[in-house]
Known about the structure:
Number of domains: 1
Number of strands: 0
Helix content: 40-55%
Distance between the termini: 20 Å
Radius of gyration: 14 Å
Amino acid sequence: MPKVSLDIPQELVDDIKVHVGDNKKFVSLADAIRTACRKMLDQLDAIDTRHGRGGQQ
């Protein structure tokens, strides 16, 4: 799996970490970010479909 490095504002990291850990929705910060990316791409595909664009390539 490729590694990606990016800068994220600390406030956003803090907000995400509230949902990370034992008995929470995500097992790690990376898991939360991957899930958010997948959800965003699904939403963009849905928008493309509604507008008659191809969506996924």
